[in-house]
Amino acid sequence: MNPLLSRLQPYPFERLRQLFADVSPNPALRPISLGMGEPKHATPAFIRAAMMESVMANPSGLASYPATVGEPRLRQACTDWLKRRYGLDVNPATQVLPVNGSREALFALTQTLIDPAPAGRAAVLPPVVVCPNPFYQIYEGAALLAGAEPYFVPTDAARNFAQDWDSVPASIWERTQLLITCSPGNPTGAVMPLAEWEKLFALSDRYGFVIASDECYSEIYFRDEPPLGGMEAAARLGRGDFRRLVSLTSLSKRSNVPGMRSGFCAGDAAIMQQFLLYRTYHGSAMSPAVQAASVAAWGDEQHVIENRALYRSKFAQVTPLLQEVLEVALPDAGFYLWAKVRGNDTEFARELFALYNVTVLPGTFLARDGQGVNPGAQRIRMALVAETAECVEAAERIVQFVKSGT
To answer: What pTM, to 2 d.p., does this model score?
Structure first.
């Protein structure tokens, strides 16, 4: 077996299953889960139709291996969207690759980029992947399985959960080969401003590491101005070649199609070339039917506007309810609430499940200890992905639970 597998920690939902293993939830209440960030809004009919029409119009399409690089019309649809959304001019032939969701791509990109034994470095000093803390667990797993050491940068709750990049010592930056950002953030919902991007680009220039920008929540936001993207920030700062930068996005949240496993990455053409080489061997080509549906999805914004309106309405009803009993605020973007609770977050989640049949994710499951402190401690993540009535009912139960003092 690959010895690096032993370094992986149980996935948060496995830890949640273990936490609830001996708990019998209240049978008088229907179960409501705010635990997993899986979109529950209906998939738009035109996307389903595009997939079915692709199969019916080209029945031989499923009898052939698709190209890893994707069909030209899909890459063009992705670049057209980048132009409309961010005002970017991107070459569809050299700077864009379709991927089977951003999760798969984040893992594969890390394997592509990390050199586990760079020349001139002692074996006791592995390369570093820097990422936020709390974080999406793929960042850590991808780093470990690439032979790198993850370094977690804490967020500052007093500064809208901004990462404290200044706390990273030069000795870490010198070993860093990859920095992973998540904006809008999971689980905090924080969006990185231009000044923060400028700081990261300067660090990348100084130390030579690549930046991977995870942007899968970019189309669900609560302010008038949409979140700034990594490539958009680069273009504004005169870095239109996107050197040492790769942005990753997905249709899962934007278009409510997590089962399609469709997204794309874009950025530095030299990195895209090597990533394509890796993916050719990795076997990550996208089905022709999924490509057809993806073209349709990237080409339409009306369903995205309607989807965003649903989330805005939902958060407007749920957040004030929870603010009666929890320290919680409307995030910049995304579909999570990152709330502070009294006492232990795992005990809070366990007792809430037992008494009120509501599932939330303990914050400590999404973070790692740093300097003796876990930034997820005393916090819970709530994914408001179900229909509004269900989310409101869950919030009302949480209010009852906290007020009961149990």
So the answer is: 0.95
Return the H-helix or E-strand segment holding 306: helix 302-323
Residue 328 lies in a domain: yes
Task: Give which of 166, 158, 168, 157 is closest to 196, Cα–Cα.
Answer: 166
- pLDDT above 90: residue 32: yes
Q: Is the per-residue pLDDT at 126 higher than 70?
A: yes
Residues paired with 154 in a beta bridge: 133
Last residue of a domain, one of 241, 270, 299: 299
Contact 113, 210 (CB under 8 A): yes
Contact by Cβ (8 Å): 248, 282: no
Which of 245, 277, 299 lies at the terminal end of a domain, its last residue?
299
Domain that holds residue 392: 10-42+303-404
Does 5 reside within a domain? no
Q: Are 290 and 51 in contact (CB under 8 A)?
A: yes
Residue with tokens 């990273």: 168
Q: How many domains does the chain have?
A: 2
8 A C-beta contact, residue 292 and residue 50: yes
Q: Looking at the predicted structure, is the pLDDT value of residue 159 above 90?
A: no
> Structure tokens of 138?
């793929």
pLDDT at 289: 95
> In angstroms, rounded to a whole number, what is the distance separating the alpha carbons of residues 262 and 253?
11
* Model pLDDT, residue 324: 96
Strand ranges inside 190-314, DSSP E: 210-214, 245-250, 263-267
Contact (Cβ atoms closer than 8 angstroms) between residue 43 and residue 257: yes
